[in-house]
Each structure stands twice: as structure tokens, then as C-alpha cells.
Amino acid sequence: MRQLGIGELARQVGMRPSALRYYESVGLLPAAERAAGRRVYPAGIVRRIALIKMAQRAGFTLAEIRGLLDADAERGATRQWRALAESKLPELDRFIEQTQILRDAVADCLACGCMNFEKCELLSADGPGS
Amino acid sequence: MRQLGIGELARQVGMRPSALRYYESVGLLPAAERAAGRRVYPAGIVRRIALIKMAQRAGFTLAEIRGLLDADAERGATRQWRALAESKLPELDRFIEQTQILRDAVADCLACGCMNFEKCELLSADGPGS
DNA sequence: CCTTGACCTCAAGTGCGCTTGAACCATGAG
DNA sequence: CTCATGGTTCAAGCGCACTTGAGGTCAAGG
Fold first, then answer.
1. Domain presence at residue A18
2. Which of B58, B78, B117 sits opposite A72 (nearest CB)?
3. Are residues B53 and B95 part of one domain?
4. Splitting chain B (130 residues) into consecutive groups of 10 residues, what average pLDDT does each group show?
5. Which of A96, B9, B18, B83 is the most buried (most CB within 10 A)?
6. Domain residues for B5?
């Protein structure tokens, strides 16, 4: 399996090495193996980072993401992982729904030509409460 | 039309008064009318704030949101608003897609019982690139 | 009259998610 | 051998989105 240096990995995932070191420091990434003092990552780490980035974009904090991923490692934490995942599901649903409303609002607003996002009638249908 | 004090408004939209003052200070909210020195908001402001919160959750910075909403005010900025909105649409689409992948991943992972989010086979189908 | 409470301003502080800087080490090319 | 490249640690700094604190104003109520 292909091995990556921190710079190479950073390039692949579109981050800076400092960010990866930071992730390691807060326990989001496992402490990488060292070759002559340098971090060496298995290619599979890319998936984990992609996952982290997705979750992050979805509004999870790094601490929450660590919670989700740690559950994999800790054998006893399965229950915790279930609980966290289950509690987050409706949140994610709500979030997706809201984002779609926004997306459609922007699209409709462009289409309808009113050029006034705030007052656009098309936005009145849903009523984005709370 | 109903008028709101800052505290009342804050309660309605689930924020603190300080956040609303902050929004005003950065130009996200128009400088509210004052009655005896106090801010008085028209009820319609709730919609604007809801909009701001949605956009924010979708990953827009406050500066970007201000850009979107300012376009309403500035007559000449219609072109800018179109451009910004159009440029953001594919971003929003990509974002929704990614979030749905994450949501489904979490859901499937709960369902499949593998209890290993990171290595779950169900995640291998998509390949969250970039 | 005096207090209470909600509001005001302005400056400074907070937490998150990194980035930057200083000082150092190891490998490879010229 | 020398030096560039790219890595290391650790502490401090930064930008965003607010929050908090100090010190003051105003209107209603006991």
C-alpha cells in the first residue's frame, strides 16, 4: 500500500500540513507512524480525512467528529457512537432540508427576476421558523 | 405592524441581543430605528434573520451574506447579486449532495451494524473526492 | 425618591480552527 | 562539504463570530 509524506497528503486532500498536524494534536487523526522522525501515512488516511471534511461542512465540530470516529477505535464505545449518530441524524435531516430551501430560494429568486431575495414571494411559502 | 424590542426579537429568533447588535455593527442588519435610544424592529426583520441563519448554516460567511442581502438595497448591484447567487448555486448543490452522502452514510452505518464508520463498505460506493 | 431592569456604547475577551515563526534535524544533489 | 528541501516541536498569533464587562441612560413601580 502506498505511503504518503505529510506534504503529499496535504496536497491530495487540499489542506496544509499544519492542519494535519493540528488534527493529530487534537486526536482527530491517529498519531502517524514515523520514518526518521517524519510522519508517514497509509493511503487509506485520505478517506478518513474526506470523512472529516464532510462532517465538518455539515456543521459538526471537530470534537464531535472525533467522538464519532473514536467510537470505531474504542470497543466499548459502540453504544456511544449509536447514540451520537442517532441524535445527529434528525439534525442532519433538518439541515439538509433547510439548505435545500435556501438553494431553491436562491434559484427561484434568480428565475423569477424579482431581484430581491429578502422580500421574494417565493420565500413566503415555507416559513423558515427557528 | 408589530414592533419588537431587541430582547424580544432575540428571543424569537433564538439569539442573544449582543449578536443582533453585532450584526448591525457589521452591516448585516440595517441600523434599527430608535425610540428613546432603543432599537425598535419591525416584525418583518425576523424573516431577514431567518434567512441569514439559513445561509450561515449553508457555509456562507457573514460577509458573503451581507453581499447577497446588500444587493437588495443597492439598485445598481443587481448584476453583482446575480453573479454571486449564480456562483453560489453549484456550490450549494455540491454541498447538499455531500451532506446527503454523509447523512446516508451515518444512517446506513447504523443500519448495517458494522459499527465502524470509517471502514464501512457502504461508504466506498461514492468516493468523496476533492 | 430610589430601585429595578432593560436597554445603550465601546473595548476587550473567548473559542474554534487553524497558521505562522523560531529553532532545529535529516536526506539528497552539486 | 554545503546547502536546499522538507520535515520536526512548541508557543504564539489570527480571523471569524460573537460574548462579556464597565459604565451610563431611561421609564415604570413601590
1. yes
2. B117
3. no
4. 91 96 95 95 91 82 86 56 72 79 74 58 40
5. B9
6. 1-58
